[in-house]
Design a protein that fits this description.
Elements (H helix, E strand, L loop, with lengths): L1 E3 L6 E5 L1 H5 L12 H13 L6 E10 L5 H14 L4 H19 L7 E9 L2 E9 L11 H10 L1 E7 L3 E9 L7
Helix pairs in contact: 3-4, 4-5
Length: 179
């Protein structure tokens, strides 16, 4: 199901049937994310690099590894819209997969994984979030974090309101090549 977002004319929300039906159970796509979505919306007005945001896309789905192919495909499609190279696209697909693997190991069973893509003129920002019982920010000195940083360019993790654990990936298109 595709719904037009109300926060911004360029925001689109893609939600699976399971997520929409779980809203009445208190696991809706916006639960516990109001402050984070406000920060994303504020960045959208300014743009991730000060050049203005082209689009925002949000994907909400069950926090289950079986659905990760949806995020890999969405990541590849959005990176292609920004004219990322095939290598950069594949790096981002792998980075999203790795970030989700880190998050899903802590996710509350049956919860919702949220992925917000913010596209700039030549940058992509991806925020992947999941509610946890006792969230722990992944250690920055692990091999997995080093690989994630190499693939995405810039990586950050934080615990937000409602015990939401979020990993933020930022990738800029190589500006030395012509479009």
């Amino acid at each position: 199901m595709i719904e037009e977002g109300t926060a911004s004319p360029v925001m689109r929300t893609i939600a699976s049937k399971d997520v929409v039906s779980s809203t009445s159970a208190g696991h809706g796509p916006d639960e516990g994310t109001g402050k984070r979505r406000s920060a994303v919306a504020a960045e959208a007005q300014e743009g991730p690099t000060g050049t203005g945001t082209r689009d925002e896309v949000s994907v909400r789905m069950p926090a289950d590894g079986a659905y990760l192919s949806v995020l890999r495909t969405a990541t590849a499609g959005l990176a292609a819209r920004l004219d990322f190279t095939l290598d950069e696209i594949e790096d981002m697909r792998i980075a999203v997969d790795e970030a989700c693997a880190m998050l899903l190991s802590q996710a509350i069973p049956g919860s919702t994984l949220a992925c917000d893509f913010t596209l700039g003129a030549d940058t992509m920002r991806i925020c992947v979030s999941v509610p946890c019982l006792a969230p722990r920010v992944p250690s920055g000195d692990t091999f997995a974090w080093t690989v994630l940083s190499a693939l995405a360019g810039s990586v950050d993790a934080q615990v937000g309101p409602g015990d939401m654990l979020t990993i933020v990936l930022r990738k800029s298109r190589d500006s030395s090549r012509s479009v």
